[in-house]
Amino acid sequence: MIWLRIVLLLALTTLPGGCMARATAPARQVAEPVMRADEEIRPVGVVCAGPENLYVADSFFPSILRVNLREGSRHVVSHNRQRGRGPNLVRPTAICLLADGRLAVSDAGSKAVLCVDPQTGDRVLLSGAHQGSGPALREPAGLAAAPDGRSLLIADSARSGLTRVDLASGDRTFLPCDDAAQGPILREPCGLAILKDGSVLVTDPGSGRMVSIKLPQKRRLEVSPTEGLRGMPWGELRGLAVAPDGFVFAVDRLMNAVVRVDPRRSSGVVVSGRRRGVGPFMKRPEAVAVGYGGRLYVALPEAGTVVAIDTATGDRAPAFASKDPEPEEDGANTPVGGEDEVQLPESEMRSLTNGQGNSIVLADRGLRALFQVDASSGRPTLLWRLPPKAPAGDLVGLSGIAMERAGTIVAVDEATGSVLRLTPGQSSYTLVSRAGVRGGGPALRFPNGIEVDTDGSLIVADEGRKAVVRVNPRSGDRAVVTRNGERGSGPPLRKPNLVAVMKDGSIAVTDDIEGSVLRVHPDSGDRSFLSAAGRRGGGPALGSPFGVAVERDGSLILTDEFKRSVYRVDPRSGQRSLVSGAGRGDGPALQCPVDAAVARDGGILVLDVDMENVVRVDPRSGDRRLLLKTPVWLENLEQGGPEGAEGASPWIRSTETP
Cys-Cys crosslink for 206: which of 143, 188, 397, 492, Cβ 3.0 to 4.6 Å? Predict the structure, then answer.
């Protein structure tokens, strides 16, 4: 009887529609869904396939998209529900083309590498927890196919080295790069490219380097282009792509530029951005691909688009039909006269903090200035500014700010890893802390946010170190409060943005990659989820929390870039509620809210960088109104500063909005 059942089963499976028939059937032909132009994406990886097709790894959908460069249309190649079968995409980080035409995708969410069939959208696990042996992947980032077509190289940003993956078996071999005798140590490898001679180029945002690695010896050599903003080194090189002529293109997320690097001479030049080329502003580019006809394609996650760049002129244009980023005429601000002719710089608002009385302080990185703004009327007062003729010095990437009890303002400079003190009424600053110059302890790598603790010490969120650091305001000494694998236990920090000191003394840190807010114990450094969908607290899920502020009753106010909304979080339960945006509240819609402050009268002030304005939000109804009716300081700022002025800095004045 058993043998009869086996024979019947084999007969059934060989019939049309049976299991064996499905296994040998031709590949499925599934129509590619066409994305609407207004659908939001977060492109993190790009690769060209032929003169017309561009494949994009989208971490927001999450999915793999195909852009028809001739038509400017977007199609869904693979998506967990819409197209293709196999393991889910969780948080793709990079994409590359294999020799057989398939796509390899690194996925930090599933800690794996997947293979995607561009014809059917089917996904196959190449290497991960359930495929292949060897050291596990932790935070797979950049990847590239080896010239032999048999393996992949992967940059794992959580490990000091590279991982080689066998395409046939999925087996992983770790290639450590932590021996100083062999060259620079890789701290957080990110972008990766393989040159014609077999050497490997890796960008390392953690150390600010680009490193050339000679395999299999693993000898490493630093490739350091020296031409950066005003002669400074590049800020944060990330994605890489190799051109047919051997030059390498890299994106600089801090300088908002694309650079061309000659790895043989360790030299580089700006191709686009930083006053070269016109077109959409490249805010925090993530990845680059070399196309046909002298074009580059750069992924801009925060703008939700990919721009095409003409390498001859540096001009930029959107690669597909979507909401275009705000245009920036780079060349318009380039001085064309003699050395004494100085053009007024463009405004670039960056962060907010509570000011004195019912006011806020607004930092403008482009103008290198601080403004105090009345939280009710919107009346601005110029507090501090470096004259346009003054050299940039250490003040390059002015970002987060906070106010001290004495009325001075502390700021972090993301470009140089510095903490500065700015005194209203002056046109200079004091260096509080910077590795190798002032203060001991670990260097700040990419500080985003800063807050003043109750004891006067400074709390800094460092995206580069994935850490929270305490800075002594007098000596400049730096000490790690919490850092993955170094101090404190609990959920890891992926991308710490801004910080706030809560009523109970603990530290709230926003993390837009995890879509969460973490609570950090100020003494032990232990981390726990303060609020995160599926982990703690109910209510609407956070998309990309960035700005954080504390209300009078201790509740947290969060700004969410991708959901274009403002949320309130109960610090005890983690419960989330919508304050404004996403259908709640009247007034101008939020576009890209990045920071928040709570005025003395309880009003919520939100900085929206796309609107180039501060939005006042009613904490009860969610209604919104623009606080700054016109950027009057752009019209009234003097180009010189206080030199030669009589009295107490007459260049600092109040101006009222009409």
Answer: 188
- For residue 461 the two structure tokens come to 């969120």
Phi-psi region of 597 (alpha: psi -120 to 50; beta: other; left: phi over 0): beta
Buried/exposed code over 36-75 (b: 16+ C-beta within 10 A; e: otherwise): eeeeebbbbbbbbeeeebbbbbbbbbbbbbbbebeeeebb
Query: At a CB cut-off of 8 Å and minimum separation 6, what does 643 contact?
Result: 387
Distance CA 77, CA 233 (A): 39
CA distance linking residue 610 with residue 106, whole number of Å:
30
- How confident is the model over 642-658, as a mean pLDDT? 30
Give every CB contact of residue 401 below 8 A, 6+ residues apart in sequence: 351, 352, 353, 361, 363, 370, 409, 410, 411, 412, 450
Measured in degrees and rounded to the nearest 5, phi and psi for residue 4 equal: -65, -40
pTM: 0.57
Region 607-616: mean pLDDT is 89
Angle made by CA atoms 428, 432, 436, in degrees to the nearest 5: 115
How far is the C-alpha of 112 from the C-alpha of 567, rounded, in Å? 33
Q: Any idea which residue has 């196959």 for tokens?
A: 124
CA terminus-to-terminus distance, the chain: 94
Q: Are 547 and 538 in contact (CB under 8 A)?
A: no
User: Kind and range of the H or E element at 568?
Assistant: strand 565-569
Span 360-382, pLDDT tens digits: 999 987 777 888 999 998 888 88
Q: Quote the strand ranges of 334-438, DSSP E.
A: 349-354, 359-364, 369-374, 380-385, 398-403, 409-413, 418-422, 429-433
Per-residue pLDDT tens digits for 153-205: 999 987 888 999 999 999 999 998 878 778 888 878 999 999 988 899 999 87
Torsion of CA 260, 262, 267, 271, to 10 degrees: -10
CA distance 327 to 316: 9
Q: Give, as one character, the DSSP assignment of residue 69.
A: T
Contact 555, 566 (CB under 8 A): no
Q: Which residue has the tokens 């700006």?
A: 270
What residues have CB less than 8 Å from 365, skipping those under 6 apart? 348, 349, 350, 397, 398, 399
| Interatomic CA distance for residues 49 and 169, integer angstroms | 26
Q: Are 154 and 163 in contact (CB under 8 A)?
A: yes
| CA gap 255, 278 in Å, rounded | 16
